[in-house]
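User: I want to check something. If I give you two sequences, will you return the structure for each one separately, not as a complex?

Assistant: Yes, each is folded on its own. Here is the first sequence with its structure:
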Amino acid sequence: MRDTPDRGDHEQPPQDRTEGHETSIDANGSPAWVDTQDLSNNEFPLTRLLIIIGSLAFTLFVSLIDQNSVSTALPEIAKDLNAFDSISWVGTSFLIANTSFQLINGRLSDIFGRKACLLICLALLAIGDLLCGFAKSAIQLYIFRGLAGIGAGGINSLTMIIFADLTTLQQRGKYQGLLETNIALGNGVGPLIGGAFAQSSATWRWAFWFVVPVTCLAAFGILSAVPKTQVQGSIKEKILLTDFWGMILSLGAAIIILIPVSGGGSTYEWNSAIVISLLCVGGILVIVFILVEWKVARVPVIPFRVFERTSAKILFTHNFITGIVYYMDLYYIPLYYQIVLGYAPLMSGVLVLPLILSFSASSTTAGLILSKIGRCNPVVRIGYLLWTAGAGGRIAFGENTSLGVIVVCLMIEGLGVGFSFQPVMIALLSNTKKEDRAVVTGLRNFLRTMGGAVGLAIGAAVLNNLLTANIPSHLAAKDAPMELASMLNTLSPSDKAVVVAAYMKGLKVVFCLGCPLMGICLLSSAFLTDIPLATAYATNSMSQGPACRNEDVEKTACHRRDDVTEPAVAQTPNETS
């Protein structure tokens, strides 16, 4: 990186300019206006700040309700649409779309504005769910669910990006509880809503239609509460800087890899020609994407500088691993309740609440501790330790495990999740440059969701293989485990006992995976560099980018901050104008 001379006390940070149709790129490979959406240098009244963050939190809550409400309604959907052999694609199509678009949302919001992108994503979610409710065939449902997945993926990333714009690293822990509580509640309430509609006369279609008016309410909140930021540059300049090749290649690679990963072992055999071909093509696209980002893109979707620090590499890997474990929990614990322990869909959703509520409570506590001590690593390590212990307890789950033991294990694991998720995000931001916060947030969400896809694929493969090996021959002709599960109560007592035992064998293997995976996160956290949050951006800017004085870096991260076009926003007295 080039060095810049020291500036006088009253000299402004360097400003990149555009002349004619040429848009300048700064020393870090970002457009001159990429960081104009930083709102953390504004002094919001506490009430106003809480309203803004509350609107973001409610929006995230709506997205997660939509994401989780379908799981408990799947048996009814499969029965109504006669889609037992392919019903897993309700979740798969959503997950593929959600994951694939997470990667590009950060950079798109840098270029076209956070608020506009978030409102578009809310519209996509509402339209997708409305159409899902009217679906007349399984294929229609899978397509519309994919459309909703694009919107949900954008919402999940953009709410966190705007939250990062609003707060400094030191403040983030204090307010993160609002976001994390809504994440936990969305994960917990979603299955209850889906199960309630599936068991009522309203039918499963209302599990989708219910989300539409709530999404409109969230959009109104965002439109009213979130301050509008002015993104500099003309439309032509923005289009010229958009890394279309990078976006196309990243989307193509993610989709082509996720299709066999999600469908392998269930829809397709792992050794089938289509799975092998898609994985090979996806791998080639990943290589081409890396070359384009490295050598061609002016403003890459993923600037490689975000991987410069060893701690950043470790934390990105942790997000992938925790995605595997957390998504397997959300999917396979309700399955364990319903099939092995015999609870109804609604009750299985209720019994996941110990995990969700402890997650919610501990995330708030972790945020307060984080703000108090100003360091991430101690909080992250406590989270990984608790999560590893809770995941280890799940190894003991069986057909006769008492509900008390299950609840205690889930509560311990929930405490670990709450102490891990947002502190790891803040640790990532403290190990990267301030102007990369949108890209880092999108990449983190992409890796966690990709981990979830891999985790669900591993679980499905294990479950299918053990079911095939252990169920009676006269039941083995059934097309799918979901169909077998839906007819469990119609089987003879002896057949039912064999099927339940086969499911338990598969679930036992799935549950055993969580402890060693979280153990890897716990052990590798010893190699993380503990950067004080108060100086993190200054340290990163001085070590990775143009030379700046500490006070300039803390205020601007070597970029100017654009004015917020809302009169209610006051600027800090010491800000250089």
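And separately, the second sequence with its own structure:
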Amino acid sequence: MGDGGTGNLRYALRRAAQGILEKGESGWQLEDLHLSAYAMVVQEQGALLHGGLHEVVTDHPVNKVRPGILASTHDTFLRTPDQAWNDHRTRVNRIRDIVRHLEHVHESRYRVCSVHKLGVPLFRDEVARHGDMQPKLQECRLQTMSRNREGEMVDKLSVKNACQMLGKLGVNSRSVYEEDFERPFLAESAIFCALESQKQLVEMSATVYIDMAEQRINEETRRAKLNLDPSTERLIQEVVYQELVASRLNAIVEKEDSGVVALLKNHDEFVVKEIITVDIENILSLLSTVSVI
């Protein structure tokens, strides 16, 4: 592979990188590729090779990955980006292994970004957060969570993988996860809980409403624990408490016939008192947690 001069070497390595990115394999032995890359460095042609590889790694997410995801069906749209992300990381790492010596020399000598370090920002900016992709992916994730909240069977693993991907795209920061999922998810959850509270507090007694609120809090906590970033669990608890309990304190306590005030004014019979005491304890138990959340 190394007998055709640096021009042939550069072309062959470029084609090998394209093959790895598109199919996961180059058609060449790793040792041959590594030796060819090393030969170009020795011949002071490393800058040309480095520039060519940057072009290949930059072109692939833009012209291959993003169109492929956008062309996927509705049923696979949430799952496809995660598979593309895993392939992208694995394949960029393979290219890094081929040009490890070149990367070491050029990153330290010329202060250029390595192919490996370029991989994550490229996928983030040209795929996951690109203008025509970001809103569609965000809507798909939020719709999936909403359908699950309504009791529908959904692909929870894809939601979990999508959240993990967003976390990694932040590169030691939660900013991508927060902006692309967590904040809009919490905002939609607040709207859902506010509407649910408004409807159910009219239709239910205070004690039944408290049972519903506690169940909703537990469900949302469990859903976050299983599928989302660990930090979201506490935040969704705060949102649900705020909308179902904290903002409705007066209405719950003073609800006609079943609020705490009404229960305290109720009948004097011993059995009824015992039932009322349990109801009051249930209400106050949940209300008391508001200050803790």
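Because they were folded independently, the notes below concern the second chain alone. Residues 267-280 have pLDDT under 50 and may be disordered. Residues 175-203 form the longest helix (29 residues).
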